[in-house]
Specification:
This protein is an alpha+beta fold. It is built from five helices and 18 strands. The protein has two domains: about 120 residues, 2,3-Dihydroxybiphenyl 1,2-Dioxygenase, domain 1 (Roll); about 150 residues, 2,3-Dihydroxybiphenyl 1,2-Dioxygenase, domain 1 (Roll), CATH 3.10.180. Strand 10 and strand 11 form a beta hairpin.
Length: about 290
């Protein structure tokens, strides 16, 4: 039903500053800007990151790529059977041929689309250009409800569970996780880009240092997911993860359950995350803040 994680749309108070940072540091290219929205890409697709001009930093919506038109229709049918409130059944962004949006548990707006426009021209990037958009981590005041919705309605599978019930990792393809959920105030914790190797993470650390910035956490290696990670804040306050070497799951292995006190779940190489790190992130945007219903 869901093929991959498409992109994240973040409301930001300073659109020019956020776009400039995405180009200079993250190596993206701005494809177009219209009606207070900026669309950026790391490759040939129309966009893999969207910024929405708004009064504060917040999560506008997350976007998932359906397994073609047939997959999108299966999503539509599953939402109808579950009584989910659909906000729109037509594309709300350029570059999308077919899409729908709906309100999920914990107040997260979810977009599912098929057939994003490709054909973006090659470009020589600044910064550290990722190889793909990797995953999104949400925060939820009712983690099990949101987890249940994603697995039973949208077909995600559980890969790892820390706590249990404090942090879960869900997959829609062989990547260990495309969505993760942390227990907390409803909103967005971080979004993640995959790079080629740990050498790219070193380049990012050096680049951040030249700009007077630094990593919030990392480099390290997660036990849940096996990926080498780094995290930093962007100018709007969103947490950005760059990672390499994530586990791929090609069978139906049982989910791994980790004790919350086992620091190896979070970092095989050193210290675990702090409570302050988990509490960080952005709230969900309020209806009407960026013009959505």
């Amino acid at each position: 039903m869901i093929r991959a994680i498409g992109h994240v749309a973040l409301q930001v108070p300073n659109l020019n500053q956020s776009v400039g940072y995405a180009v200079q540091v993250m190596g993206l290219r701005e494809v177009e800007r219209r009606d207070g929205n900026a669309y950026l890409t790391h490759g040939s697709m129309h966009h893999s990151l969207q910024y929405v001009q708004g009064p504060r930093a917040a999560l506008d919506h997350i976007s998932l790529e359906a397994d073609g038109v047939a997959g999108l229709e299966r999503v539509r049918d599953a939402l109808a059977r579950s009584g989910v409130r659909v906000l729109s059944e037509t594309p709300q962004e350029p570059g999308l041929a077919r899409a729908l949006r709906f309100l999920g548990p914990s107040g997260v707006v979810i977009e599912v689309y098929a057939d994003m426009e490709g054909g973006q021209p090659p470009y020589v990037p600044s910064g550290v250009r990722p190889r793909k958009f990797g995953h999104i981590t949400l925060k939820s005041s009712n983690l099990r409800e949101l987890q249940g919705f994603l697995t039973s309605v949208l077909g995600f599978k559980l890969s790892d569970d820390i706590g249990p019930g404090m942090l879960v990792f869900l997959r829609c393809n062989p990547d260990h996780h495309g969505l993760a959920i942390a227990a907390g105030t409803d909103g967005h914790h971080h979004y993640a880009w995959e790079v080629e190797s740990i050498a790219d993470l070193a380049r990012l650390g050096d680049l951040l240092d030249t700009l007077g910035r630094c990593f919030l956490w990392g480099p390290g290696r997660h036990g849940a997911g096996d990926n080498i990670f780094t995290y930093h804040h962007d100018p709007a306050g969103a947490i950005v993860e760059y990672y390499a070497d994530m586990e791929r799951i090609y069978d139906d292995r049982p989910p791994r359950i980790w004790d919350i006190n086992d620091r190896r779940a979070a970092n095989l190489w050193g210290a675990s995350f702090t409570p302050e790190f988990i509490e960080d992130g952005l709230p969900n945007a309020d209806p009407g803040e960026s013009g959505r219903e």
